[in-house]
Design a protein that fits this description.
With 104 residues, this protein is an all-alpha fold. The protein has two domains: 23-59, no CATH class; 62-104. The chain contains four helices and no strands. It has helices at 2-10, 14-37, 40-58, 64-99. The longest helix is centred in the last third of the chain and has 36 residues, at 64-99. The chain is flat.
Length: 104
Amino acid sequence: MANKEQVKVSQPDKTQDQSAQDKKSQALAKAKKPQAQSAQPKKRRFTFFADIIGELRKVVWPTRQETIRLTLIVIGLCVVMGLLLGAVDYAFSELVAKVLLGGQ
């Protein structure tokens, strides 16, 4: 009787055998994917640069006058914001000096 139980245990089920084969085939498929993609990065590098050049040709570049005008606007706003923040900083430093430090 013990021999029959051992025989039953040693014989694999069909479902277990099938699931084991599925796992093996999935593992093989995962292992094959990186090898198939190893040739593509070289092509991707060159197509990447070609795509960049193609996109840069589509860009509508600003004229010289637009560039100068927008640059002056940015510089002007930076100066105005610098003066504004400097004034606020000076006001707060005077406030802290008079209120918290006792008028030193």
